[in-house]
Here is the input.
Amino acid sequence: MSILDKITKHVSKTLHTTHLKAGDKAPDFKGKDQDGNLISLNDFTGKKLVLYFYPKDDTAGCTAESCNLRDNYSLLLQQGYKIVGVSADDEKSHQKFIKKYSLPFPLIADVDKKIINDYNIWGMKSLFGKEFEGIVRTTFVISETGIIERVIKEVNNQNHTEQILATPV
Here is the structure.
């Protein structure tokens, strides 16, 4: 059993706090990426967007998720998706994470947690019996017109691209 499997097995409780659902208008956002470039929801008008929120750069689960998206990046682009990651890490942390794993998409440094709070994905979590607050790993698939098409709350880090491309039930 890998360390990632052990961690996943020990996550006993996660409170998904987001009230957002398919059909809702995606909350507008503006934030700086790893290079200080401003990214906003309006930048993706006319494009499909995968907006994924993850807890922390260079941790086992977040690395697996980001690398799965990296490894399937050309497939996602062929399907018309743009990808943007969001965490509360700062620009310098994102730069290191991107460089270490050759991530081809931007990561927003939401250190003030404005976007995180607007998407309401901060909540209580439990790992190895210890409760704490943090980002509840969640992905939003947003249409070309800014409408949420899907909310993926139970993210499979190692097969996230398959989840994104799967036909919604």
The chain has six helices and ten strands. The chain has one domain: 3-165.
